[in-house]
Amino acid sequence: MVKDLDLVVSEIRRTLRPGGQFLFYEHVISQDKRVGRLQTLANPIWKFATTGCNLDRDIVSAIRDAGFQRIELRRFSLSVGLPITIPNIVGTAHA
Description:
Elements: H1 5-15, E1 21-27, H2 33-49, H3 59-65, E2 70-77, E3 87-94
Antiparallel strand pairs: 1-3, 2-3
């Protein structure tokens, strides 16, 4: 599991050639404040039970902060699973 998201995403950006792409798929913190609070409350137990997986990380901000030139992403909700893992994103970040 990723312990320091910002460091990992920055390293991905640093090692990509100009024009390279970082493809990502991740369950993310919900934009719905109620679900987001539930994710944050459940995160310590979830993290322990899943050996380090986080429910409440903001990978989109980490990708933006890493300095990618262009980010294309799509948010979607899975129709199966726990409500805390339903918000997802898939996308491409261009170096």
